[in-house]
Amino acid sequence: MIKVIVAGFRGSMGQKTVNLVQKTADFKLVGVYSPEVTDLKPQTYGLASEVQVFNTLKTTPPVADVWIDFSTPSGVFENTKFALQHHIKPVVGTSGLSDQHLNDLKETAQAENTAGLIVPNFGMSAVLLMKFAKEAAKYFPDVEVIEMHHEDKLDAPSGTAISTAKQLSEVRQTQAEPEVKETLKGARGADYNGVHIHSVRLPGYVAHEQVLFGGEGEALTIRQDSFNRDSFMTGVAIAVRKVGTLKELTVGLENVLS
Q1: Would you state the CATH architecture of domain 2-114?
Q2: Pairing of strands 207-215, 143-149
Q3: Which one of 11, 25, 75, 228 is at 20 to 30 Å from 135 when CA atoms are compared?
């Protein structure tokens, strides 16, 4: 039985994760966390009486194996560090962690001898998009990324888009860019090591990404679409079951898919 705490349990992804844990035979929900709640009675949220509800990281958490985080970009670093310091393996789906945050968390994980998994995207289509795009970038170094999300997404670019750009940068040959004058600031998007990222925030969207490659006389587009949040739950379940096989804090669901 894998004992689970869900952070950010009142959000859309948090609620779906709570439902997943409750209906999965080998998972057990032992705690939920959100700094936004004031009522700490589990019955208020339709949870079993033995589930611990807490709203501050000063609380001693229940004994747990995995901390699933779908909180906010502003809170995810402290949440993940808290889990590691209490020897609970974090599975983090919240974006907003900087490179410095990741370095700090890896050091904490090593010091606490605790592993964990940072997941830019739990969708299998997104994981495969990054895999295919990384292969294509060896042959098409001229590339741009467009990510499209719902209007309530708090960060831009998305964690998935940044992760995609990082993986592209590992294999593509750096290209000399022509001088371009932006008549409107930001028209060329964000720049990650020469990979331009464009963010769209509109109602009706959930999570979508395109990687556009251009070459002499040809072009290649790789795209994935997540039409509802239920599509992420397969990846969440895999991560919860597999995080225990890791030896360190690791980035990317692809690392536990073998």
Answers
A1: 3-Layer(aba) Sandwich (3.40)
A2: antiparallel
A3: 228
Domain with CATH 3.30.360.10 in the chain: 124-227
**Residue ranges of the chain assigned to CATH 3.40.50.720:** 2-114
> Which top CATH class is 124-227?
alpha beta
CA 115 – CA 89 distance, rounded (Å)? 6
Cβ atoms within 10 Å of 143's Cβ, excluding its own: 23
> What pLDDT score does 188 carry?
93
Is the Cβ–Cβ distance between 211 and 143 less than 8 Å? yes
* Rounded Cα–Cα distance for residues 2 and 26 (Å): 6
- Which stretches of 24-162 are assigned E, i.e. beta strand? 27-33, 52-54, 66-69, 89-92, 116-118, 143-149
The catalytic site residues sit at: 149, 153
* N-term to C-term CA, the chain: 22
* Residue pointed to by tokens 């999300």: 149
Helix, coil or strand: residue 195? strand
**What does pLDDT average to in each consecutive run of 10 residues of the chain (258 residues)?**
98 96 98 97 97 96 97 96 98 91 97 96 93 96 96 91 95 80 92 96 96 97 94 95 97 89
